[in-house]
Amino acid sequence: MQNDVTLLQSTALFSGLSEEDLTGLLARIGAARRSYNRGAALVQAGAPSHSVGVILSGRIEAVRRAPDGSPLPITRMGPGGIFGDVLGGSSLYSPVTVTAVTPCEVLLIPYERLLCPDGTAAGQQVLQNLVRTISDKYFLLARRVDLLLLRSLRAKVSAYLLSEADRAGQLTFRIPFTRAQLADYLNCDRSALSRELGRMQREGLLDTYRSSFKLRDPDALRRLSQ
Fold first, then answer.
1. How much is the average pLDDT of 187-194?
2. pTM of the model
3. b/e for 51-64, b at 16 or more Cβ within 10 A?
4. Based on the structure, what is the number of domains in the chain?
5. 52 near 42, Cβ under 8 Å?
6. Which domain holds residue 55?
7. Can you tell me the distance from the alpha carbon of 40 to that of 59, in angstroms, rounded to the nearest whole number?
């Protein structure tokens, strides 16, 4: 449990809480630990979602179906990842399916208990944190839309890899997608993406192997992403 508390304290949702305040709050709001096998659905598209989940171990993936039925990956998360914070407060059904990519353990929290603080400083802090995480995800979605609006595949690839390098804080990093999943994320053909990455590597813009990348000329990539 100590490891779980340390992990939870590192998340955006429970940032700023002491161990004592956190454990007391979790007990009061009815947080429950759940285990899922690989392939199990944590949230089903078309069904209501009224919980906020924090991943304690394993990995999950959120996918939305495109109009033609093809899967469109939204995000992948590992330990410390938070899901349901945007969906839980809506009266609409979930537009995405959240699935366990690996066996995982998740802390589920009733959404309405987060929205109604118990009068303690810890409850108020978590409510503020919840609003902040929702706002942050709004801006992430806006960046995704900006990415998809770029006209050329090269511009999309450049903009995406630069954003991942910024998130990693270095020019060598791994992305959370396979090549096929990245093609879905960028809304392009997988073969076209592989060809473009090959050309960019030959031109000295980047190095890549599977999901690993090294940006060799970030200034050129910034110009291409405009």
1. 92
2. 0.73
3. bbbbbbebbbbbbe
4. 2
5. no
6. 2-137
7. 12
